[in-house]
Amino acid sequence: MNAALVIVDVQEMLVPLVWRGEELAGRIAGLAREARRHQVPVIALQQIGPSGTEFDPEDPGTRLSSRLGLEPGDVVIQKTATDAFYGTHLAALLAERDVDTIVLTGIATDYCVDATARSALSHGLDVVLVRDGHAPVAEGDPAVGLSAEQIIARHNRLLAEARHPGGELSLRAAADIVW
Description:
- The protein has a 6-stranded parallel sheet, sandwiched between helices.
- It is built from 4 helices and 6 strands, in the order βαββαβαβαβ.
- It has one domain (3-176): Rossmann fold (3-Layer(aba) Sandwich), CATH 3.40.50.850.
- Helix 3 runs parallel beside helix 4.
- By secondary structure, the protein is of the alpha/beta class.
C-alpha cells in the first residue's frame, strides 16, 4: 500500500458547525503527525467559492483550521465541488506519487467526504475511510430524523458496502491506522 492522508475541508468556519468538531480536528491532526513521521503525504482540501459567497477564498473562515497543524511540506488543494477530484489536480498529484490508497478524513460526512470517497474508488484508488475521522453538521439532518451519529454510521455502512469499478473501501478507526 502506497498511501496518502487526504483531509477534506477542515476549515475554520466549519469546525464549530460539525459534530464534535474540535475533537475531530484534533484526531485528524494526530493522523497527520503520524503520516508525516512515516513520510506519507498529507493533502488538505479546501472548499472555495466565488467572491461574496460563504466560501469566498478571501474570507478568513475558509482557511484550513489551525488545529490541523499543517506544515510547509503538506499539500493544499482548493476545490469548488463536493468531489475533490472534480476540476482539481488531485488525481494527477496522487498518480505522480504512486499513491494507490487514500486514508480519508474530514468534513462533511454526507457531502464532500462521501463524494470524494466514491470518486476516489472510481479513479481506481483504494480508500481507507477513517470511521471516526469525519463528521456531519452537529444537528444531523432533522428533516429526515437522523442524528449526527446516525449519519456517520449510515455513511460508514453505505460506503463500505458500495461497489465501484475501481478500488475498494475499508473502514478503520483512527487509532488503528498503520502507515
